[in-house]
Write a structure and sequence with these properties.
Helices cover about 50% and strands about 15% of the residues. The chain has about 325 residues and is α+β, with helices and mostly antiparallel strands. Helix 1 crosses helix 3. The chain starts with a helix and ends with a strand.
Length: about 325
Amino acid sequence: MSDIAIHEMISAYAAGCMDEKNYLYFRDHIKKGGELPAKELGELQNIMALLPLVLEEKKPAPEVKKNVAKELLKYSDEIKAKIQNAKTKTEIKPTEVSQKQEEPGQVQPVQNNEPGSDSDKMEVAVELNAEYKPIDLQEKLDERRERIAEDDDALTKRQWGLLVIGVVLLVSALVGLFYVYNLTTNRISDAMKEIKTMELEVEKNTEFRDNYFTLMQFFTLEDLKLVNLKPTNSANNYFGKFFVSFNSGSSLIKLDNMPELDKSQTYQLWARTDNRDVLLGAFEPVFNKQFTELNDIPEIDVKAIEKVFLTIELKPGSQSPSGRALLEAEIK
C-alpha cells in the first residue's frame, strides 16, 4: 500500500468518514503488521477533538428552522417505524468475563463479527495507540508562548543594539561635522585675518605711493623752493611746508596740527608782493593724504615776494584775504 493511500485512510479513519470497504482493507493492513506513520493517528484524533472548539457555531434563520420542523413532522411516522425495526433486530449477547486476570496494558476487545462494528474500530484504535501518548495541548501552547517570548526578547535586543549603533554613528557623525566646521571656521578666520593684513599693507603702500611718489617727482624740478610756514600766534602749534616751482606753476603743501574746517570753510594760500596779496590756491586737506597739490600757480617774480601766509575763508573762496592768518613765512 502506498504512503499516500495510508495517509488518506488514517485521515478518514480519524474523521470517522471511512466506508466499509476501505475500513476492512485498512484493518487487514494493520493486522498483517503493515507500517504506519508514528503517532499520526493519535495526533489527527486530537485535532478532530479540538475542531468543535475552533469552529464557530452558526445558527440557522428562524424560517429555515420552521421549514425543517415541517419536513420532520411529515416523516416522523416513517422514522419511528425504522427505529422500532432496528430495536427488534438488535440482539444482546452476554459478555463472557474471563476468569484470568488481564495483564496491565492489554485490552480485551468485545467479539463482534459485523464488519465495521464498534468493537473492530476499538481493536484497531487500541493497536494504533498502544504506544501513543496523548498530546498536552496546554503544554504545547505554553511552549509556543515561551518561544514567541524568546523570539520577541531576541528581536528587542537586536532592535536596541541597532538603535545604540545608530545613535553612536549619529553622534560620531555630528562630532566629525562639528570638528570639520570648527576647523574650517578657524581656517577661514585665519585667512580673513591674512587678507585684512594684506589689505592694510596694500593701503599703506598705496598711501606711500600717493604721498611720496608725487613728492619724489616734484623734487626733480630745478627751481624748487621750500617754504616753512609757522604759526602767527606762538601759542599755537600749527605747522606747514610749502614746496613750490614758480617756473612750472606747480606746488605741494603739507599741514600739521591744523584746526578742523567747517563744511562751509576752505584754506587759501596767499603771496604778498609790493603790498598786494596774490592768491596762490584754495584747498581742503584730504584724509590720509599728507601732501596736497596746488597747480596753476600764477607767474610771480620770486624776488618781489615778501611773504606767504595761510587763511581760512568761506567757500567758494575769496579774491582777497578776509580771514585771520594762521600760518606765515617770510621769503628771503
